[in-house]
Amino acid sequence: MITLAEHYGVPADEQVADTDWIEEAAKRGWPILMKDKRIRHRPAEITAVTEHKARCFVIPRGDLPSADMAQRFITNKSAILTAAVEPGPYIYSVQRDRISRLHP
Question: Number of folded domains in the chain?
Answer without folding.
Answer: 1
